[in-house]
Amino acid sequence: MFRISRVLTARHTAVLGALALACSDGSGPNGGATTGAIVGTVSSSGTGVSGAGIALTGTGTGNTTTSATGTYSFNNLTPGNYTVTVTLPTGFSLATGETAAKQATVAAGATATVNWSATGGDGVTTVTLSGTSFTPGNVTIALGETVRWVVSNGSHTVTPDTPGQPGVWTGTGQLNSGDQFEHTFTTAGTFDYHCIPHQSLGMTGTITVQ
User: Fold this and answer.
1) Cα gap 159→154, rounded to integer Å
2) Which class would CATH give 36-120?
3) SS (H, E, C) 44-86
4) In the 8-state DSSP scheme, what is residue 108?
5) What is the CA angle 14-23-77, rounded to 5?
6) Could you point out which of 6, 17, 47, 106 has its C-alpha 20 to 30 Å from the C-alpha of 210?
7) What is the C-alpha separation between 152 and 50, in angstroms, rounded?
8) pLDDT in tens, 24-67
């Protein structure tokens, strides 16, 4: 009887271990997914709007910003009901009939999609700061247009290589995730700039004003 008891205990331990391993990677005991996702796009006239703030509340919470192509995602979400709210960058407004806050229901193993349509943005070029890159790194604009730098993640600066150059902006100091800075160019020329913490890693950019 003692031996049988030990064998059963060992088997039970193995089963419990298998269950714990299956659940630790976000799947259920039978290998099924236990989480879902919310993804979407913010666009204006068919072009993605980068740097839009996206806030998630409800069963879980989170914050992110849209990428250079206007997309965003929240992954590994607990199934349930959520509210997704957009905050548009300066110069944009929601299209007629759109609301800033929208509802989404997340199911295990499924992806819910929440999109917004916006208007505006004429004369504004957005550069996204992410990792160790400005995207796009080289921008050409017309005289009188504006460049908006939006931090997707990390901490960065937008620092002119030549601070005394006519028409250049004043260095931003540290910008954190979700922050943005913009400058309207009223002088033609080529404006090189960099991120102080990541310059050695190649985080540089150029604005050409024609």
Assistant:
1) 16
2) mainly beta
3) ECCEECCCCEEEEEECCCEEEECCCCCEEEEEEECCEEEEEEE
4) T
5) 175
6) 47
7) 9
8) 445 555 568 999 999 999 998 878 888 889 999 999 999 999 98
